[in-house]
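User: I'm putting together a small comparison set for a docking exercise, and I want a reference complex before I start. The sequence is below, and the ligand is C2E. Could you produce the 3D structure with the ligand included, as structure tokens?
Assistant: Of course. I'll restate your input first, then give the structure tokens for the complex.
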Amino acid sequence: MVRLLARECLEEAGMRVVEAEDGNQALDVFALQQPDLVFLDVDMPGKNGFQVCEEIRANPLGKNVPVLIATGADDKESIDRGFQVGATQYKTKPVNWPLLSRDVRYMLRAAKAFLDIKAQENKLRYFAYFDHLTELPNRRSFSEQLHRNLLAGQETGRQTGLIILGIDHFKRINDSLGYERGDQLLRNIADRIHGCLASMGHVISDHTHEDDIVHDEGLVLELARPGGDEFSVIVRDAVDEQQLEAVGLEILKALAEPITISSQHLVVTPSVGIAMSPGHGDTPESLLRNADAAMHAAKSDGRGQIRHYDESLNRDAAEKVLLETELRAALELGEQIFMVYQPQIDTRTGDVAGVEALVRWNHPELGNISPVKFIPVAESSGLIIALGDLILRKVNDDAVSAGENFPDSVAISINLSPIQFTQSDFVTKLRETLKDIDSRFKIELELTEGVLMSDASTNLSKLKELKAIGFDLAIDDFGTGYSSLSYLRNFPIDTLKIDRSFVVDLGNEGGDGIVKAILSLSNALGLRTVAEGVETVEQSRFLCENGCTLIQGYLLAKPLTIEDFVKVAKNNFTHQLGIRS
Ligand code: C2E
Ligand code: CA
Ligand code: CA
């Protein structure tokens, strides 16, 4: 009778009604039809309305569905019971049938509003916790993951592994691809890493997994993308560092295969840093800092490498901080920093045709500090701008003070950091600072391949500008970077500097071939060549015979103070070159 009346009233109001005979059937019908609203009578054969409501609520599909219960009694106890089992609304019998459809409508509208808010909340949660590009958890989720794992570890006494991956040279790749394809590349990388981790264990990374229930016993890995070109993997209950290294190696392998993006085949390598809690840090901050330090060490080890955190990395970091502080002070004083000059000898005449200016830092307590150490510190701290300016001023002043003893025929080479080069007022500043010497000497600027590769179009116009006002341009350490032969044709380059590592290899298998190839390439393009780091007569002879233009190295002269340089500037070095005795 109740069912019949309910059906009539609701159908009349345009709703569809499905009925069940008893409590058990009600549950089946609910599961099958997933209605928008459930209307239960407390008095039913089999399970009663309270029990059915309770079971519907236990079903994930029934969490939010509005449930209306018709109770026989108006007593407080059964109403309480109804709410306890999760009823949304109750009606005491006899039901006021004419009002039922209105109440049902009202409940449906409230339920929809609730679901809308839920959906909105989920969306906000998604944006707050997930990176929309790769759909991986973002930095915020990552921090929470780390926090949660370390807390759990403290309780269980188990270790947590943290692997940080940085994609090598991502900025450069991104610049050359354009942002859209750069994004695509990141998505591909994320998929590769995800796929590779999934083959090793259970991966938690998905926003659809509301709660991280893990059923299997194997490795549990949490993947996230905390930053631009950085990915993180948390290894729950890590066993030892070998296990973490194995995960890192699999990721390296997974990325070794080229990734194809609009028919371009790209190979990316990550640098991988590994740290393990509690040994390498028992707070999220310290563990992350140390994994990060290991990743940066992997980058400076030559990229595409895996490094584990160890104490020495902290010492390195502390040393960098000290150097930065001291360098800042030295730049203010200006006295501890000076230039030395290494002659470059013309292989045909034996005369000094050029000189490379190299910076030196003599610290009162730390002694002589190598530019190999302090230039990177200057670059990462921004001090390179002030240091670069000081270098230009010193070269200018040294050449002025040397006067006539510094022959005009000697070209002066100055090293530039890529960061100096990106300053917008760089060209003006360069002219200003070198104003006393730039008309008297040929000045050559030594740039690395990186400058040509990143942000090619802006740099190309700057290089053309420099060339137009009379500076020559050299590529330093040629062959060690991302040699793309096309830039040799596109950029207004004058000189290639053959890196010392190739000169050292002369006489070894394969070594001669590379140098010969560079020499014939540059001859074909009409470029000068300077071989750096020449230490033996054999090296010199080979270079002279194969048409190298200039030779620079300890065989001929070490970098000299300006006073010592002017003493040899007019000497002839034919004898030392080892040719024409
Ligand atoms: P680089 O430009 O490739 O400089 C060549 C380095 O090789 C110099 O080291 C030089 O002293 C050294 N060298 C020269 N001949 C020989 C040789 O026969 N055998 C060996 N083993 N080494 C030789 P240095 O002066 O320590 O400079 C190291 C690097 O620091 C330079 O590499 C350059 O990248 C950077 N640097 C030096 N001075 C400056 C500067 O004024 N500005 C900038 N931005 N970087 C500089
Ligand atoms: Ca150089
Ligand atoms: Ca070099």
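The mean pLDDT is 90. The pocket of C2E (ligand 1) is lined by residues 342, 358-359, 370-372, 375, 391, 415-417, 476-477, 500, 532-535, 553-554, 559 (CB under 6 Å).
User: Thanks, that's exactly what I needed.
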